[in-house]
Write a structure and sequence with these properties.
By secondary structure, the protein is an alpha+beta fold. About 20% of the residues lie in helices and about 35% in strands. The radius of gyration is 18 Å and the shape is elongated.
Length: about 140
């Protein structure tokens, strides 16, 4: 239940994501909260050939940066389920809407950066460098 609340606080509403571990790490003196989670769901048909001969085929790890919460950095190590079609032999990964396919920055983080840029930053000169400095 606490794990579900963590996802809710971070604005993640994908019911197919289940937290498996939560840890705090220090990298170069910076604290990072790392959420390990698994993304999986049942697949009825192959998206390529429509066959029903689908099997689970391991997982792919996605490292994504989430938005900050109470000025603390959050990252997610997401194990995305891989699937294999026994008919056409093509593979694919489970999908989620928290991050664009092939990207590592979450949609929320991108919105936060844009919001900060729009509002203007009070420190330094309000440049993009100042915005990016706040997210290192």
């Amino acid at each position: 239940m606490i794990m579900d609340n963590t996802l809710e606080l971070l604005g993640i509403n994908d019911s197919n994501i289940k937290i498996t571990r939560f840890s705090a790490e220090s990298v170069n003196g910076e604290k990072r909260n790392v959420i390990e989670a698994r993304l999986t769901y049942n697949v009825d048909r192959c998206p390529y050939c429509e066959s029903e001969k689908i099997v689970r085929n391991g997982s792919k790890i996605l490292h994504t940066r989430l938005t900050e919460l109470h000025q603390e950095r959050f990252e997610m190590k997401l194990y995305k389920q891989r699937y294999l079609c026994r008919e056409c032999l093509k593979t694919w990964s489970a999908r989620t809407d928290i991050v664009e396919e092939g990207h590592t920055l979450s949609h929320q983080l991108k919105r936060s950066v844009l919001h900060m840029a729009r509002e203007g930053i009070q420190d330094t000169e309000g440049t993009l460098a100042a915005v990016s400095q706040g997210f290192r």
